[in-house]
Design goal:
Number of helices: 14
Largest sheet: 8 strands, antiparallel
Number of strands: 10
Strand content: 15-25%
Helix content: 40-55%
Structural class: alpha+beta
């Protein structure tokens, strides 16, 4: 278990051997998965800097590949954080750098700094007595709450950045700060530290809802990732409280957060998602075309998409016919405006999206929530329906749509987006099939 202890130390030579391996595990994973799919990566600067983003650039990325690559990357980042905090323990400094090493794009520089740190004079704190200092526990929880609220205000509202810094680095720093402050005079058990860190996370996200900065659904979707990151940070903070200290404590890493937010805001992701679905309709193409274009309301429940507050289609109305006609797509969150660019009756209907409503309606006690991510961070570029004649008077109806995702970690959010897309497509195709069968 000592190998998994944040309280132990790692010598410079050992760290210099371990860190490069952990740094490049995500690159190797992405390269192997892309090569296996027949699309070997271009190993340019973008690949070496942000390998997961390069993988997410594939419009038809399978969910299984995204899950494998993201899980491996998280495990490698956690192991790198462990090695980095142990390296900081040996030097008695560098805790602030170790706390941000989970962020892609700065990992190589952070690891290089840690590898070169000499040994500093430090105060030994290994003799902490087990117990509970209630005042320090409360300070730790309040500090964690403050970090969460401040991070959303700066990253999301001020800079419009939704990325690794907000969803991974911030929870890690919440855990580090809360764990460190709660344990700095009397050492809590690991179980008590977990409860304190999770209490800070729960109260912090509750504050976001109370202050109308976020809705409940978005918080629930981000919770699994944030909880894992916060617990890794909590283990590091607790260990740091009982380890050696020098010129830098982990709390100093908080000063780096605005710079990390600004860095991600300067290089935002633009990640394509291509989706398609097909249904066999027991009716001829003429009946299917009529059901597709007549503009009646879509019947049936939207299911999980509606329950989550995500946008789902209610009807599509054509203003005119033929190429150039305007199509109004009515969604649960508002109206989309589209222009027909493909019009072949009984065969093909295609339209790019000119404007669209919010991607979701936040679940909140307030009528209006200040969440920039519902506008423009997930968008639909174009949609097209294709009808093919089948034997026996049947029709194959296919739909293809292209989307853009502008939130990271993309390999975490993209499978969720694809699930919502698939459910909406199935909802629309099922409605057309029912209507065509009634004609």
């Amino acid at each position: 278990m000592r190998l998994l202890s944040f309280a132990d130390s790692t010598r410079p030579a050992t760290y210099a051997l371990i860190a490069p391996v952990l740094l490049f595990i995500p690159h190797l994973t992405v390269a192997l998965l892309l090569t296996w799919r027949g699309a070997p990566p271009v190993t340019d600067a973008g690949f070496w800097l942000l390998p997961l983003r390069r993988m997410a650039m594939r419009p038809d990325l399978p969910d299984s590949d995204a899950a494998v690559a993201f899980t491996v990357a998280l495990m490698a980042a956690a192991a790198l954080a462990l090695a980095s905090f142990r390296r900081a323990n040996w030097s008695g400094a560098g805790y602030a750098v170790a706390a941000i090493i989970v962020l892609p794009g700065v990992q190589v520089a952070a690891a290089a700094v840690l590898a070169l740190l000499p040994k500093f004079t430090r105060h030994e704190a290994n003799g902490l007595t087990p117990g509970v200092n209630t005042a320090h526990v409360v300070q730790g929880v309040l500090a964690g709450v403050a970090i969460i609220v401040a991070a959303v205000l700066v990253s999301a509202l001020a800079m419009g950045s939704y990325g690794w810094s907000l969803f991974v680095s911030t929870p890690v720093l919440v855990g580090v700060t809360t764990g460190y402050l709660a344990n700095r005079s009397l050492l809590l058990s690991w179980g008590a530290t977990v409860r304190v860190v999770l209490a800070a996370a729960v109260l912090g996200t509750t504050a976001l809802v109370v202050l109308a900065l976020e809705g409940l659904v978005c918080i629930l979707m981000a919770a699994p990732l944030g909880a894992v990151a916060a617990l890794v940070g909590g283990a590091a903070g607790r260990a740091t409280a009982r380890a050696v200290h020098g010129g830098g404590r982990p709390l100093a890493s908080l000063a780096l957060l605005p710079a990390l937010f600004a860095l991600e805001a300067a290089i935002p992701p633009t990640l394509p998602i291509a989706a398609h679905a097909t249904v066999i309709v027991g009716a001829p193409p003429a009946a299917v075309w009529k059901a597709l274009t007549e503009g009646d309301a879509i019947a049936g429940s939207p299911g999980l998409v509606g329950a989550a507050g995500l946008a789902y289609p209610l009807r599509g109305r054509l203003l005119g016919q033929g190429v150039g006609a305007i199509r109004l797509g009515e969604f649960s969150t508002g109206m989309a405006r589209e222009r027909v660019t493909e019009w072949v009756p009984g065969r093909r209907l295609g339209f790019p999206v000119l404007s669209q409503p919010p991607a979701m309606e936040e679940m909140s006690p307030y009528r209006r929530v200040r969440s920039p991510h519902v506008h423009g961070y997930f968008s639909t570029s174009a949609t097209a329906f294709t009808l093919s004649t089948l034997p026996g008077g049947r029709t194959r109806l296919s739909v293809e749509a292209s989307h853009i995702l502008r939130i990271e970690p993309a390999l975490y959010w993209e499978p969720l987006a694809r699930l919502a897309i698939r459910l909406n497509m199935a909802h629309v195709l099922g409605d057309v099939r029912r209507k065509a069968g009634q004609n």
